[in-house]
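Residues pack. Consider this:
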Amino acid sequence: MMRLPKFSYRVPKKISDAVKMMADSGPEASFVAGGTDLYPNMKRRQQTPKTVISVTRLRELHEIRGDAATGMIIGASVSLTDLCEHPVVKRDYPVVASAARLISTPILRNMGTIGGNLLLDTRCNYYDQNYEWRKGVNFCLKKDGDICWVAPSSPKCWAVQSSDLAPVMVALGAKVRLVSTVSDRMVDASGLYNDDGIDYLHKRPGELLTEIHLPPRNGVRAVYKKLRRRGSFDFPVLGIAAALDIASDGVVRDAKLILGGVAPSPIQVREAEELLIGRPLDIDCIKAAAEACYLKARPLDNTDFVMGWRKQVTRPFVARALEELRG
């Protein structure tokens, strides 16, 4: 049985107290909400914080307010279950509710939070193993080692971004609020992620994710498609988030196509977006955009399924997403 290491557990009741605790505790501390990512990582000794600061009692982090006309603000500690079932989220931002419903299992969605999913640690077959297994293969670049076993000649870690909500938030143009003792700033969701499996977030030490801000809908329609082996529980090995603004005459005015599960960060395929904008969303247009996404997808052998097949599946998944939006 894998056991948690010893740690100090603290429970602030105000955001100001939480960020001060983090500042006082230093780099060997971590925030936790549902703990569905952090605690398994601690059991595998991937992360070993000396102090764990729970944000579950911060009331502001559990609020949902706004609508499609004004935009919506979602507290970072809103559970994935509450996100799925919230009537305004389902009505005005159905892609957010549907993507959240695809995460893990009902029991884990009861514990997991939107903020936790957006900050999910990158994953890899050589990293997400227990300590003894990783020691047996001589560890890896992401934790305790000096080589990436996926790409041994690479100086970079290629662990994969495996959040379902991250590509959706990037596609919708969402922003996140990050609070610390020295700053309170808003960051575009697209600017939150870094294309490096180790340093995968543009988030300063000590910052707490408190809110997610969704912009007004303004007629934008969005959809998310997920590839995984089983119908539940599994992380995505390919995620497609597509958001389109289609005029009344059928011409695409704006487009966002984001790939998840193929790199250390969500990948925006601008080449595919340019093929869609200014054109009617017909079959030829959809095929061209799907081909552009296929060329951009470069999965490595670090998750489930054969990497070549994962790349091939990009075409039909993008096509299905765009066809759904056209319909």
User: Anything to note?
Assistant: The chain has a mean pLDDT of 97. The longest strand covers residues 238-246. The chain has 13 helices and twelve strands. The CA atoms of residues 193 and 201 lie 5 Å apart.
